[in-house]
Automatic annotation (TrEMBL):
Protein's UniProt name: Crp/Fnr family transcriptional regulator
Residue stretches making up the Cyclic nucleotide-binding domain: 10-113
InterPro entries: cNMP-bd_dom, cNMP-bd_dom_sf, RmlC-like_jellyroll
Highest taxon of source: Bacteria
SUPFAM superfamilies associated with the record: cAMP-binding domain-like
Organism in which the protein naturally occurs: Flavobacterium microcysteis
Gene3D superfamilies hit by this protein: Jelly Rolls (2.60.120.10)
Amino acid sequence: MEFIRNHLELSAKLSDQDWAFFSSRLIREEFPKKSLLVKTGQVENYLSFVEKGIIRFYIPKEEKNDITFSFTFDGNFTSAYESFITKTPSTYQVETLTPTILWRLSHADLQEIYANTDIGNTIGRLAAERIYLETSKRELSLLNQTAEQRYLNLFTEQPQLIQKIPLKYLASYIGITPQALSRIRKRI
């Protein structure tokens, strides 16, 4: 669990008392590959830290052309965040792409952390800011860059995507068909 504290302390120093309170609320869970963590229509109940694994966020489509819009990797927080903070049903699904280990906080436990620690609100704000910045960056890339530029950016910004994610999900993530991605890969 110390790796979670180390991750949090990249942004803000935690007292031993705050860490003890925070860590006492964490629940460790393991999930096999292809586990649905959140289904469309289900309320997200957890904010989770990924110890190990890859998680995909997508909108399921009947034609088998799901729209993948995000991934989370080791060492990051993950959640169907809109559903988590509003306690409303999720409009998308969250699944593991690899065997995954999560450290989870329930919504109620997170509220207790906010209320009973000096650092809780800072951690929550920083997590929300990170989610906002990632979403904004993705939206801008979809509006301002070609598919080829978005694919090339993956090499420099997120090389783990290229190495560990099936091409059909990568294609969906950058907003093109698998066939179009194949053509781009041949040109490069």
